[in-house]
Amino acid sequence: MKKFIDLGLSPKVMKAINDVGYDTPTPIQSEAIPHALEGRDVLGIAQTGTGKTAGFTLPMIHKLARGRARARMPRSLVLAPTRELAAQVAENFEQYAKYVKLDMALLIGGVSFKDQDRLIDRGVDVLIATPGRLLDHFERGKLLLTGIEIMVVDEADRMLDMGFIPDIERIFKLTPFTRQTLFFSATMAPEINRITQEFLQNPKLVEVARQATTSENITQNVICFKAENRKLEAKKKRDLLRTIIKDEGEKLTNGIVFCNRKVDVDIVMKSLKKHGHSVGAIHGDLDQRYRMEVLAGFKNNDITLLVASDVAARGLDIPAVSHVFNFDVPIHAEDYVHRIGRTGRAGRKGWAFMLCLPHEIKHLDKIEELVKQPIPRLEVELPKLKKQENKSRVKNIDTKIETNPLKKKQENKEEKSEAKSNPKANNNTKIKNNPAPSDAVKETKSPIKGLGEHVPAFLLR
Ligand code: AMP
Fold first, then answer.
1. pLDDT tens, 398-430?
2. 278 lines ligand 1 (CB under 6 A)
3. According to the model, what pLDDT value does residue 38 have?
4. From the CB of 54, is ligand 1 less than 6 Å away?
5. 10 Å Cβ neighbour count for 329?
6. Beta-carbon contacts of residue 110 (< 8 Å; ≥ 6 apart)
7. Ligand 1 centre and the CA of 292: distance in Å?
8. What is the dihedral of CA 284, 288, 294, 300, to 10 degrees?
9. Do residues 120 and 434 touch, judged by C-beta distance below 8 A?
10. If you count DSSP H runs as helices and E runs as strands, how many of each does the chain have, helices first?
11. Going by CA atoms, what residue is nearest to atom 17 of ligand 1?
12. Is the C-beta atom of 17 inside 6 A of ligand 1?
């Protein structure tokens, strides 16, 4: 197994890695970094959680340490599909580049153009942007992409889902042919394959196996139930959810409730709130400031339960939680692995519960096929049926599993969501961005957990 020291990174980058506390590079890092340092294009097939962000930021910092930025001509560009992900990349840069003097700017929607223009005018080494906002700046004649030495496309498959591929193609064409490209995607859809063929030059393919297993530390259960009629299904799910939460008692320190639809995220959040739970919600339609506050509150343990949609939660560095609740059975089996992977991290125990209605059995079958194990069935008695107050209502039952191939592929697309964020300067690295912080964020007192003990500057402002 390779060590960080074997990868050829500069002492200043190594020192920052040491500060963050990483021992060994992840597979994507040990494969991608040496090639990126050599100047080769890299095509990384990897998803969030594999350490891919450091896989591209570390060699970029190493390479950009020499040289100076010119006004309006950034030297490197990182494109991320959402504001949150762009902000997360900026946080990573902030950490890893703390001993290197690099100017950075985050160009995301929801932030005034004027402030962003000022930053670009001064010259930036690293520009982190969502495609729409970047092109807005370009069209206003404020930005030149002809000085780009390194370009990163992160989460290309999500760019595809969100309809950003034409923008990406356009941006590629605005950058010099001589640039180095680091391109990351969890999957290689034909459209993504096409643009990599067109815009990458003899890339080094670095692939990290897809996650298809679930941690042994996680106790998984599924509650299959029926409702008297269709109208009662959602209500019964909410009742069951609250019953399980109550039954879990002190074992539940914090948890994420995943819903398939945004509308259910809202309803479940309101319902839990009404029943006295400390709860917040994130999905693509919610106000950005609210989302950032909810995330900060959850990381800070001010909020115990986070109700989320897959797309809003995917890619976000949410701290480990004790419980994951699948309010709905995810339509894509891989989402199950991602969802429950939020718990049982770093050797800790975790619990994952899933609620399954008859029409969701087909998705459950697919999940069991993917994880190659049956998910134990539980029977949960609703309070109104219970006879004794103190007895746990959760019992194990033995259920046979049928496997039905899932034929219909359903898409659960979310709105293009971008986050407002406000990273600030740290040591020599200046992450430049603007707007006013929210009061809720300002009031944060205890350390925010997420990227280790690091508190992203934008969450504190
Ligand atoms: P990413 O896939 O880039 O979103 O990274 C997922 C998480 O892994 C982040 O919280 C990183 O801080 C963390 N991470 C990245 N590289 C390493 C490493 N070499 N050792 C331990 N943790 C890491």
1. 333 333 322 233 333 333 333 333 333 333 333
2. no
3. 96
4. yes
5. 25
6. 83, 288, 418, 419, 420, 435
7. 21
8. 120
9. no
10. 17, 16
11. 51
12. no
Per-residue tokens: 416: 């293009």
Q: Which residue out of 3, 78, 317 has the highest number of ligand 1 atoms within 8 Å of its CB and is therefore the one to mutate? A: 317
pLDDT at 382: 75
Q: What is the pLDDT of residues 355-386, one digit of tens each?
A: 999 999 999 999 999 888 899 999 887 765 44
Q: The whole model's pTM is what? A: 0.62
Every domain of the chain and the residues it spans = 4-207, 218-383, 425-461
Q: Which helix (H) or strand (E) holds 107?
A: strand 103-107
* Ligand 1 atom 21, closest CA: 22
pLDDT of residue 311: 65
What pLDDT was estimated at residue 358?
95
Q: Please tell me the CATH code under which domain 218-383 is placed.
A: 3.40.50.300
CATH superfamily of 4-207: P-loop containing nucleotide triphosphate hydrolases (3.40.50.300)
Nearest CA to ligand 1 atom 12: 451
Q: Is the beta carbon of 49 within 6 A of some atom in ligand 1?
A: yes
Ligand 1 and 451: CB distance under 6 A: yes
Residue 22: CB within 6 Å of ligand 1? yes
Write the pLDDT tens digit of every residue in 78-99.
Answer: 999 988 889 889 999 999 999 9
The band of 111, judged by pLDDT with boundaries at 50, 70 and 90, is confident
Q: Is the pLDDT of residue 303 over 50?
A: yes
Name which residue sits closest to atom 14 of ligand 1, judged by CA.
51
Sign of torsion over alpha carbons 23, 24, 25, 30? positive
What digits encode the pLDDT tens for the residues 308-321?
987 666 666 677 78
The answer to whether domain 4-207 and domain 218-383 are alike in fold is yes
Whether residue 199 has pLDDT greater than 60: yes
Task: For 37-64, give one letter per residue: b (16+ CB within 10 A) or e.
Answer: beebbbbbbbbbbbbbbbbbbbbbbbbb
Is the CB of 50 within 6 Å of ligand 1? yes
Residue in the structure block whose two tokens are 């970047």? 134
